[in-house]
Specification:
Blueprint lengths: L11 H14 L11 E2 L13 E5 L8 E7 L2 E7 L12 H4 L15 E3 L5 E3 L2 H19 L4 E5 L5 H14 L4 E4 L6 H11 L9 H5 L2 E5 L3 H4 L1 H8 L6 E5 L5 H5 L2 E3 L6 H14 L5 H7 E2 L1 H7 L5 H8 L3 H13 L3 E5 L1 H4 L4 H14 L9 E4 L6 H7 L14 H11 L14 H10 L4 E5 L3 H4 L3 H10 L2 E6 L12 E4 L8 E4 L4 E5 L12 H12 L11 H12 L12 H7 L2 E2 L5 H4 L19 E2 L18 E6 L16 H4 L7 E4 L1 H7 L5 E6 L4 E8 L7 E5 L25 E11 L3
Parallel strand pairs: 1-2, 7-8, 7-15, 9-10, 9-13, 10-11, 12-21, 13-14, 15-16, 16-17, 22-26, 23-25
Antiparallel strand pairs: 2-3, 3-4, 5-6, 5-17, 18-19, 19-20, 22-27, 23-26, 24-25, 24-27
Helix pairs in contact: 1-22, 3-22, 4-22, 4-23, 5-16, 10-13, 10-14, 10-16, 13-14
This protein binds iron/sulfur cluster (SF4).
The site of iron/sulfur cluster has 13 residues, from helix 2 and helix 8.
Length: 747
């Protein structure tokens, strides 16, 4: 095994010096896989300047394969991989421009520490680590170990997530830590766990091509997941695309049918579909009886959701609902796909489970072209869900379960007493803990809560309240880094190695093909240094490089639904190209595509899936006389990513989306407010106000406005409310009003 950190006996200062020197001196480890194509390895002297290696994309959870073209071992260009089973030679603009995000002058190149005058000043790593440890230890000594928390990400490799979660919880005694995946995938993860017994998205992307009917519920693939949309377009079965979405999105415009339901009426609509399917006998009773529990209770639950009632609740014609049920019945293969329109909801888990229930009752699961399939957001959201050690113990285990704690202690060779016996607070509870003074120190890794957290004005005030805020990021000027007390400069995608897990459970490698700038280090290395400075490095002595952690992940996965035992090491994964979990045999390692539940066996003890349901609940802040419009938020353009910290670094991408915030408004509402396209108007909620450029368009329905989430100001407006099961924020429903001014953008 190659080692990347010095022996433990050397001093911290020597370790830092050695690591920073290594960062300068070495790109990759020696592992040449095939002539002209380099795996993880160091490019040999005299290598052809046009050598290539491969890696998965570091933006979204589609997980496209890229060829990285190297000169003297350094990536200078990239192209999509034609033989990768995800993207088949395609990439979206973000993927094409992935390298440009590394070259920005905004990169954090040295640690920054806020001085007595309030300025962030460069310091060396030794001072930064000393500040990190002394400040957090002082807070813990005065207020208890739980008073320091962390917020992590779905943007770093699984190995780094394992290292972070283990360092924080087993080494530093931190109790509370959550990921930004709470903002996108917590609902899907919770829904699967409750329904199937494990967080297990069943699909493979081939299902897009093999469906007769493709339901996209709260999912705008053309913008959010363009390569998945390309897979839809490859459907050769005449697959009918049905989009369920309040907005007439790009995907809705391209669909066979658009059902423009009222915002947050999904649950009533889906229960109405279930009612019709049951009433007409269009269900697979044999499958239901053999493989599920709770169906009869569910059937009773949906009795009141008659077509008349459900269609009225959803703002549809009764006939539209009946025809939709008939469409499912008339076709052999229906696949249901959802993303943030469902997940970011105050009743998202039950909505996702209403989709799962439809798939179960019609046996649209475990067969080609079927499934109740959630679509993930970030490149490693699935890795985070399984291995971040936040609200789940490593490998989808439970902190509360003594056997699970012992499994982890044995696999990692640490004392079991080091593992907390209760789970972390969720993100919103950590934020609330800052308000109450229970959380005094916060460590934020590769995420940007000052932009993204719901009700942003309140969040920023709370961040100011912290005794010590550490941000570890590629860039020194994110909204959150600007208010930090300490900034730790991190390497990005392409500057380190590890594995990502995509939406269809596929593991792929990322590789170090660039040097990080200045003194920036891989997050893994930063965690190792913190462990040494904190004095808990002996717990992690077995992990000297990310691949060492991968071996622990492999051990931790053994016998679990996410078992990856057949992926023996990085070399094996690189040779296979990628592999979906579970992967327990040579045969599975080399299967290009695989879906779950073909045998009808689920992960609950009785191997049955559960029908789960609740009545719809009222929208917490519906429009009223004072705030008569409903604000929807979501993705804007295919070339924008989340808070734009990376996409705004590319001159090419910046040309492909509006640089300033805009609001879509229906022509009827624009008439009433005398607003024309190009006017600067102010949108106010009960929490704040935003001035944006109006775009008058029938894409949004009357009574609704839409603002993309990528702009810094959007979350000044949003209402902090959460799904009770997943604690995911509900970003897409709050009441607003317009205030117009006479100013217009220059033509
Ligand atoms: S679709 Fe996602 S994974 Fe594929 S190239 Fe674009 S950003 Fe990268």
């Amino acid at each position: 095994m190659t080692t990347s950190t010095p022996p433990q006996s050397v001093s911290l200062a020597e370790q830092i010096k050695s690591l920073v020197h290594q960062r300068e001196g070495r790109l990759t480890r020696e592992l040449l896989l095939q002539p002209g194509r380099f795996g993880l390895g160091k490019v040999p002297a005299g290598a052809a300047p046009d050598a290539t290696t491969t890696a998965v994309c570091g933006y979204c959870a589609t997980g496209c394969g890229l060829n990285l073209h190297l000169q003297q071992g350094v990536a200078t260009n990239l192209t999509p991989s034609t033989d990768y089973p995800v993207n088949l030679g395609m990439a979206c603009p973000k993927g094409w421009e992935a390298l440009s995000a590394l070259d920005s002058p905004d990169r954090a190149t040295t640690p920054l520490l806020r001085d007595a005058s309030g300025q962030l000043r460069p310091v060396d790593w030794e001072h930064a680590l000393e500040a990190f440890c002394s400040q957090f230890k002082a807070i813990q000594a005065e207020h208890g170990p739980q008073s320091v928390a962390f917020l992590s990400t779905g943007q770093i490799p699984t190995e780094e997530l394992v290292m972070l979660g283990s360092l924080a919880k087993f080494g530093m005694g931190v109790i509370h830590g959550d990921g930004n995946t709470r903002q996108c995938m917590a609902t899907a993860a919770t829904a699967y766990k409750q329904s199937f017994g494990f967080d297990a998205p069943p699909q493979t992307y081939a299902d897009f091509e093999e469906s007769d009917v493709i339901f996209l519920i709260g999912a705008n693939l053309c913008v959010g997941h363009p390569i998945m949309w390309e897979r839809v377009l490859r459907n050769r079965r005449g697959g009918k695309v049905v989009v369920v979405d309040p907005r007439r999105t790009e995907t809705a415009q391209a669909a066979w049918k658009h059902l423009a339901i009222r915002p947050k009426s999904d649950l009533a609509f889906l229960y109405g579909l279930a009612h019709v399917l049951i009433r007409e006998g269009w269900v697979d009773r044999e499958f239901i009886d053999a493989h599920t529990t709770g169906f009869d209770d569910f059937a009773r639950h949906v009795e009141p959701f008659t077509p008349e009632f459900a269609a009225a609740a959803a703002g549809l014609d009764e006939l539209q609902l009946l025809e939709t049920a008939e469409l499912i019945h008339d076709h052999e293969r229906t696949s249901f796909w959802w993303t943030m329109g469902v997940n970011q909801s105050y009743e998202g888990v039950r909505t996702a489970q209403a989709i799962i229930n439809l798939a179960l009752m019609t046996r649209n699961i475990g067969r080609p072209g079927t499934g109740a399939n959630s679509i993930t957001g970030q490149c490693n959201a699935m890795g985070s869900r399984l291995f971040s050690n936040t609200t789940n113990l490593l490998g989808g285990r439970r902190f509360e379960d003594e056997g699970d704690r012992r499994d982890v202690a044995d696999a990692l060779g640490i004392p079991v007493e080091r593992i907390p016996s209760h789970p972390s607070w969720a993100y919103d509870q950590i934020v609330e803990g800052i308000r109450t003074g229970e959380i005094r120190g916060l460590w934020v890794i590769a995420t940007n809560p000052a932009h993204t957290w719901i009700n942003q004005g309140d969040t920023r005030e709370l961040l100011d309240k912290l005794d010590f805020l550490v941000v570890q990021d590629m860039y020194h000027n994110t909204d959150t880094a600007r208010v930090a007390d300490l900034v730790l400069p991190a390497a990005g995608w392409g500057e380190k190695e590890g594995t990502f897990i995509n939406t269809e459970r596929r593991l792929g490698l990322i590789k170090k093909v660039r040097r990080a700038p200045g003194q920036a280090l891989a997050d893994f290395t930063i965690f190792k240094l913190i462990a040494a400075a904190w004095g808990c490095d002996e717990l992690f002595a077995r992990w000297n490089c990310p691949e060492d952690v991968f071996q622990s992940i492999r051990d931790l996965s053994r016998g679990r639904p996410c078992d990856i035992w057949a992926i023996t090491d990085y070399r094996t994964l690189d040779a296979a190209g990628s592999a979906q979990w579970p992967c327990t045999s040579e045969e599975q390692l080399h299967e290009p595509e695989r879906r779950l539940f073909a045998d009808g066996r689920f992960y609950h003890d009785d191997q049955r899936a559960k029908f789960l349901f609740d009545p719809p609940t009222p929208m917490p802040e519906p429009p009223d006389a004072d705030y008569p419009l409903l604000l929807l938020t979501g993705r804007g353009a295919v070339s924008q990513w989340h808070t734009q910290t990376r996409t705004q670094k590319s001159a090419v991408l910046r040309k492909l989306y509006p640089q300033s915030i805009y609001v879509e408004i229906n022509p009827a509402d624009a008439d009433v407010a005398s607003v024309r396209t190009g006017d600067r108007i102010t949108i106010e909620s009960r929490r704040g106000a935003v001035t944006a450029t109006a775009i008058v368009t029938a894409v949004v329905q009357p009574g609704q406005v839409f603002i993309p989430m990528h702009y810094e100001a959007t979350n000044r407006l949003t209402l902090p409310h959460f799904d009770p099961h997943s604690r995911q924020p509900s970003y897409k429903d709050c009441a607003v009003r317009l205030r117009t001014s006479r100013s217009r953008l220059p033509k």
